[in-house]
């Protein structure tokens, strides 16, 4: 797993290489990080740390802007409309490029041609955790308990296209469980 220093150094080097690449034009004075979640989320905090370090490294203004919605869908659509001059960088989860083509029948952008991955960013581990008093020791027992009493099988997820949501969908396909999505809240009931 990358530490903050490695992430900032790698991102600065990548942006620097883009500046000296095939196009000899200079980069705009302001670099804008597009964040796909609202302020206060863990991705926002990481983006702000990186932006703070990069402003000194790149000797440029670095701003953080928010384009929340659809776990990156809104931000990706916005990024496609910007000039490809190196002034915009999007911080987004893996779902944008890896999952969206499978989750949406039609996208207004092509993740393979309209977005270019710059560097591997941050890995935030996920865990299925239960109360110690539940008697559940593994995933199979959790699925069995959820099937026996669906009210005891809630799984919260940050969005319908997150890794957690896909995990729940996979669990829902298991013969031991069913999964019902709640469209009004950002969670699912398995």
From TrEMBL:
It comes from Ramlibacter terrae. InterPro entries: BUG, Bug_dom1. The lineage of its organism: Bacteria, Pseudomonadati, Pseudomonadota, Betaproteobacteria, Burkholderiales. This is Tripartite tricarboxylate transporter substrate binding protein. Pfam families: TctC. Belongs to the UPF0065 (bug) family.
């Amino acid at each position: 797993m990358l530490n903050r220093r490695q992430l900032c150094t790698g991102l600065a080097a990548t942006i620097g290489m883009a500046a000296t690449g095939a196009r000899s034009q200079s980069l705009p004075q302001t670099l804008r990080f597009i964040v796909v979640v609202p302020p206060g989320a863990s991705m926002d905090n990481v983006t702000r740390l990186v932006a703070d370090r990069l402003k000194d490294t790149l000797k440029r203004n670095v701003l953080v802007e928010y384009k929340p919605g659809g776990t990156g869908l809104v931000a990706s659509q916005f990024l496609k409309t910007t000039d490809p001059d190196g002034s915009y960088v999007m911080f987004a989860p893996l779902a944008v490029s890896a999952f969206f083509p499978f989750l949406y029948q039609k996208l207004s952008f092509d993740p393979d041609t309209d977005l270019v991955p710059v560097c591997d960013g941050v890995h935030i581990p996920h865990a299925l955790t239960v109360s110690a008093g539940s008697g559940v020791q593994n995933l199979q027992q959790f699925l069995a308990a959820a099937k026996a009493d669906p009210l005891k099988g809630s799984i919260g997820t940050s969005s319908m296209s997150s890794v957690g949501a896909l995990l729940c969908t996979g669990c829902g396909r298991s013969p031991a469980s069913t999964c019902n999505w709640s469209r009004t809240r950002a969670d699912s009931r398995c």
